[in-house]
Design goal:
With about 250 residues, the protein is of the alpha+beta class. The protein has one domain: Creatinase/methionine aminopeptidase superfamily (Creatine Amidinohydrolase). About 25% of the residues lie in helices and about 25% in strands. Helix 1 (about 5-25) packs across helix 2 and helix 3 (about 120-135) packs antiparallel against helix 4 (about 145-155). The two termini are about 35 Å apart. The structure holds 2-amino-4-trifluoromethylsulfanyl-butyric acid (MF3) and cobalt (II) ion (2 copies). 2-amino-4-trifluoromethylsulfanyl-butyric acid (MF3) binds next to strand 4.
């Protein structure tokens, strides 16, 4: 069942989404060579708590930390660790989900650590364009599959692959709700979008092949071919006239 959020629910959810976006902005200047992903985790954790919210990942299905930090060939769900120290040339995705007012807000961004190779930089730029192209398909009475069709078209035009094992998701009172938002999809398929639906779009785009493998820690998903992977995520509301990016910082 896909929850249609009321005006009041949307107002509460917007606040959670804005806090998630603020957390990503807050952490940005710390994403430098020499910092550990554990330190990034602790800074985000404190920031979220200070604003009266909880970090949704902490203890979610046993996840041990407050954010996900996915470095270079990690597709998603990387676990912050004191032994993972950022180095010049890395790319790192930081995924923040906040729980505020009984609603979740979910957003992530891939950061460049210092000077990065042109190949890595282009992957990150195109992945952001994939997210925005997907978002541009969000409007009432259109098929959900149009989002993933648009993302795949752009990624494939650059010779990249689109991860299929992990998807965007409905979000609200639950971290992960229906519908599933597939990032490699076919135009004109899937459910019809309706005003009041809220879901994430979060394409994971790989330099090499789309396949990933879960590491021994039970969470970290690494590309099978060990090539780079990038991701961006926003939480989106379907409105009467189109959409609103709830995790786009408004002030
Ligand atoms: N924030 C991730 C998403 O975009 C989910 C992380 S689940 C966790 O859906 F347990 F790893 F935190
Ligand atoms: Co998400
Ligand atoms: Co997320």
């Amino acid at each position: 069942m896909i929850h249609i959020k009321s005006k009041r629910e949307i107002e509460l959810m917007r606040k959670s989404c804005q806090l998630a976006a603020k957390t990503l902005k807050y952490i940005e200047p710390y994403v430098r060579p020499g910092i550990s992903t554990e330190e990034l985790n602790n800074l985000c954790h404190e920031f979220i708590i200070k604003h009266g919210a909880m970090p949704s990942p902490l203890n979610y299905r046993g996840f041990p930390k407050s954010i996900c930090t996915s470095l270079n060939s990690v597709i998603c769900h990387g676990i912050p660790s004191p032994s993972d120290i950022l180095e010049e040339g890395d790319i790192i995705n930081i995924d923040v989900t906040t729980y505020l007012n009984k609603f979740h807000g979910d957003t992530n961004k891939t950061f460049l650590v210092g000077a990065v190779s042109p190949i890595a930089k282009k992957l990150v730029e195109v992945t952001f364009e994939c997210l925005m192209a997907g978002i541009s398909e969000v409007k009432p009475n259109a098929h959900l599959g149009n989002i993933g069709a648009r993302i795949a078209e752009l990624a494939h035009a650059h010779g990249y692959s689109v991860v299929e094992d992990y998807c965007g998701h409905g979000i609200g009172r639950e971290f992960h709700e229906e519908p599933q938002v597939v990032h490699n999809n076919v135009r004109g398929t899937g459910v019809i979008m309706r005003p009041g639906m809220t879901f994430t779009i979060e394409p994971m785009i790989n330099l090499g092949k789309k396949q990933g493998t879960v590491q021994k820690d039970g969470w970290t998903v690494m590309t099978k071919d060990k090539k780079l992977s990038a991701q961006f995520e926003h939480t989106i509301l379907v409105t009467e006239s189109g959409h609103e990016i709830l995790t786009l910082l408004s002030d």
